[in-house]
Specification:
This protein folds into two domains: 175 residues, Rossmann fold (3-Layer(aba) Sandwich), CATH 3.40.50; 168 residues, Rossmann fold. Helix content is 35%, strand content 17%. The chain is built from ten helices and 14 strands. The strands form two sheets. Strands 1-13-7-6-5-3-4-2 form an eight-stranded mixed β-sheet, with helices on both faces. It comes from Agromyces aureus. It is a lipid-anchor.
């Protein structure tokens, strides 16, 4: 299957309301969604989260919102089940298949192997996987013909965020860390470092990036907001960073706690969603956020499947098709250089035209 792109947008990235958690690997998945969008059709969409959960203020939650919106418009109810640990993935998928799901949306690289196994065993069920290529043998093709990957070349947007971080930094040191060293995590860190390096070259600065050297870096080993994530953030804070990019769902909450405890003037960069809008409790810390149109991509895929138009061709979000981008500076508007937004607009155009190259595993 060839990889193509199509138009996507960021409408709906902000939270529309509280998300109801639907937990339980052991029990059958619960129904969610109002199902009041119109006449019911013979179609059952389903969704399983990774261990970050549907309230991660990030990609699980955005995917859930997109799938729920599509289900409502189709006049059906979304069945969803939340994974608490990696051992839940395969049983949750089996559970959903047994519940008669026609389409199953899975979230994240961690669910890739279980998704492929389930898809191969159930060729009549359609699958959508968010943030993974479903190419576990790395041969450049999706491992099952009934899986549609939704991917985002976030290195392009992270490049802009890295450039902004370097322009903003007063200490000359910025940092990043991730949950696990998956391609969909390290792609943020790759783009971020490239953006900082580009600013150093163009503006004559010497801003250092801690936590990622282009190949390896700091990872907590999971995506939970816990002491490990907090201590990892603290280690970077102790090295004088004044911009911090935590990549991996809820781990940003631990980073925010470490920043507040430090009493230092440290800005944070969000991932996937605009954290100023999705989590106002950290709005005062947010320099910007690196955005992915996860809700839009998921909505489109579920709606198409419900209308009998499932297309397994991979979607890749880019700056050009507006599948990725960065959020406004919000509270930091007056704190960044006055000409920074203009520079970013020019840089975005240069990336789209190819005049500035941003490398990632999706651009090879």
């Amino acid at each position: 299957m060839k990889v193509t792109t199509k138009k996507a947008g960021f409408a709906g990235l902000a939270l529309l309301g509280s998300v109801v958690l639907l937990a339980g690997c052991a029990s059958a998945p619960e129904d969610s969604g109002s199902g009041d969008g119109g006449e019911a059709i013979d179609f059952q969409p389903c969704m399983v989260s990774d261990s970050g959960g549907f309230d991660d203020k990030s990609f699980n939650q955005l995917g859930f919102e997109g799938a729920t919106k599509a289900a409502d418009e189709l006049g059906v109810e979304l069945k969803s089940v939340q994974s608490e640990a990696e051992t839940d993935y395969a049983p949750n998928l089996t559970n959903l298949v047994d519940q008669g799901c026609d389409l199953i949306v899975t979230v994240g690289f961690a669910l890739s192997a279980a998704t492929v196994e389930s898809a191969l065993a159930n060729p009549d069920v359609e699958y959508v996987i968010i943030d993974d290529a479903a190419d576990n043998d790395f041969d450049g093709t999706v491992d099952a013909e009934n899986i549609k990957p939704i991917l985002f070349d976030t290195a392009q947007a992270a490049f802009l965020a890295g450039y902004a971080a370097a322009a903003y930094s007063q200490t000359g040191v910025v940092g990043t860390f991730g949950g696990m060293n998956f391609p969909t995590v390290s792609i943020f860190m790759d783009g971020f470092k490239q953006g900082v390096d580009y600013h150093n070259t163009e503006a004559g600065t010497d801003v250092k990036v801690l936590g990622w050297d282009g190949t390896d870096g700091l990872f907590t080993g999971g995506f939970e907001a816990n002491d490990t994530a907090r201590n990892t953030a603290q280690g970077l804070i102790d090295q004088n960073v004044d911009v911090l990019l935590p990549v991996g769902g809820p781990i940003y909450q631990s980073a925010a706690a470490a920043i507040r405890d430090s009493g230092k003037d440290i800005a944070m960069i969000g991932v996937d969603a605009d954290f100023t809008e999705t989590d106002p409790s950290v709005a005062d810390l947010m320099l910007t956020s690196i955005l992915k149109g996860i809700d839009v991509g998921t909505y489109d895929a579920v709606l198409a499947a419900g209308n009998g138009e499932f297309d397994p061709t991979a979607f890749i979000g880019t700056l050009e098709n507006e599948g990725v981008g960065i959020a406004p500076f919000h509270d930091f508007e007056s704190k960044v250089p006055a000409d920074l937004q203009g520079q970013l607009d020019e840089l975005k155009a240069a990336i789209i035209s190819g005049d500035v190259e941003v490398k990632s595993y999706l651009s090879k």
